[in-house]
Design goal:
Layout (H helix, E strand, L loop, with lengths): L1 E4 L1 E7 L4 E6 L13 E7 L2 E13 L2 E6 L7 E8 L6 H14 L9 H7 L21 H10 L8 E5 L6 H14 L5 E5 L2 H13 L5 E5 L1 H8 L10 E3 L7 H6 L5 E5 H4 L2 H6 L1 H4 L4 E4 L11 H6 L5 E6 L22 H4 L3 E2 L2 E2 L4 H11 L5 E2 L21 E5 L2 E5 L3
Parallel strand pairs: 8-14, 8-15, 9-12, 9-13, 10-11, 10-12, 13-14, 16-17
Antiparallel strand pairs: 1-7, 2-3, 3-6, 4-5, 4-7, 5-6, 18-19
Organism: Vararia minispora EC-137
Keywords: Hydrolase
Protein name: P-loop containing nucleoside triphosphate hydrolase protein
């Protein structure tokens, strides 16, 4: 596997005999867990490629160890060769599987894993009190929140399918508001991506709830995405600034809701420092569940015996589990037939104009997805314009790309 890293600038550090490179895009950045690199050097007589390795990363800036002296030479490209190192979630999963193989972890005694992979109704999980939602929602959203709040042992797992624009974050916010009103604690809101977690946090602020903390990795935040968190900076805990001992418990005192990625939930430092003692993992909500390979939940359910309720929210008609482009058979929670058959469907979308929404409904959702009848773009307005970019040219613009078309 070869990844072309986008580099905005390079410089040679003579004193350290290192190449300094500034990554131009987070998506293909140089990272501390990068595999081997190939650096292509341009000289007056031609070009050649030399092996290298990332030694240190601070935001977009990376220090690269390299044998050649590249002083005064032009770096034409940097490529990562091989697969990047495992995420925290993958490391935790591997450790759990190893423990199972060694007989140290009785995997199938775990009621949550039984509920995911087996159809038996004998796996009982402690239940919690119920309260009806009072946050303004449509009928399908109301049913989803009620199911998420249900006390029934048959509802220990809630599976919610939400097509684009159907208000998944609104459902999560309503669940949080009603859970807090019911006196529930230990609510952890988790997603595959940092952006999805940030979106949930902003929705909570929008509905007037601020008693939460968001754990974000320094790798994602520092030097890359601080601007995304300006409105919620007061509630952020960055991974390189984890408080310790009494300082952690003081910072999380009275906190009822925590937000983080699934990878951060598996971070050993968070567990060792006491995050889960300060805010026990009791009620777990997982957004973007269709993008998470179901095996990545094994370590979560094996390492936390305080969980009482789990809610999966996503849409298997959108992005598949991460890594499925390499391993086609990866499954999400939506591929568990005995769970998907009872999934609740958010049936009204508010984002797309009705003429587009109706097309998507017919072609993707078997006609079950309705459109907001009060959408400002009505059927009398042309909402689709196709542009031929065959002869266009693509150029980098900040962290994205622009296609220029010659007319």
């Amino acid at each position: 596997m070869i990844t072309q890293n986008t580099i905005s600038s390079t410089s040679w550090n003579n004193s350290r005999n290192q190449l300094q490179a500034i990554s131009g895009r987070y998506q293909n950045r140089l990272a501390a867990n990068n595999p081997d690199l190939q650096v292509t050097v341009q000289t007056s007589t031609g070009s050649y490629t030399t092996p290298a390795m990332v030694s240190k990363v601070a935001g977009p800036s990376a220090s690269i160890k390299i044998e050649d002296n590249l002083s005064g030479k032009i770096i034409s490209s940097i490529q990562s060769v091989g697969k990047s190192g495992p995420t925290q979630a993958e490391i935790a999963r591997q450790a759990t599987v190893l423990g199972v193989l060694q007989g140290l972890i009785p995997l199938w005694d775990n009621p949550w894993l039984q509920s995911i992979w087996l159809t038996s109704e004998e796996c009982l999980v402690p239940t919690i009190s119920h309260i009806s939602p009072n946050y303004p929602l449509n009928l399908s959203q109301t049913k989803a929140v009620n199911h998420m709040l249900s006390i029934s042992s048959h509802d220990r797992i809630s599976l919610i399918q939400g097509p684009p624009g159907t208000g998944k974050t609104s459902v999560i916010a309503a669940y949080v508001l009603n859970s807090i009103q019911a006196g529930r604690k230990g609510i952890w809101l988790v997603a595959q991506s940092n952006v999805a977690v940030k979106n949930i946090a902003e929705k909570l602020v929008k509905v007037g709830f601020t008693n939460w903390k968001l754990i974000v990795s320094a790798d994602f935040h520092f030097g890359w995405h601080e601007h995304l968190y300006h409105e919620i900076a007061r509630n952020i805990i960055r991974s390189d600034q984890f408080p310790k001992g009494n300082a952690l418990f003081e910072k999380l005192k009275g906190c009822q809701v925590m937000l983080c990625t699934l990878s951060m939930l598996s971070n050993k430092r968070a567990q060792i420092l006491g995050f889960f003692r300060a805010v026990p993992l009791i009620n777990l909500v997982i957004d973007e569940a269709s993008q998470i390979e179901v095996g990545n939940y094994v370590s979560v359910f094996s390492n936390h015996n305080t969980i009482q309720k789990v809610c999966f929210i996503g849409d298997d008609k959108q992005l598949p589990p991460h890594g499925s482009e390499e391993i086609q058979v990866l499954e999400s929670i939506f591929e568990m037939d005995h769970l998907h058959s009872s999934a609740l469907f958010l049936d009204t979308q508010y984002r797309m104009p009705p003429q587009i929404g109706d097309f998507i409904s017919k072609r993707v959702y078997n006609g079950q997805l309705f459109s907001n009848p009060e959408h400002p773009i009505t059927s009398t307005i042309n909402s689709i314009h196709l542009v031929d970019i065959t002869d266009g040219s693509e150029t980098a613009s900040n962290t994205s790309y622009i296609v220029s078309i010659i007319s």
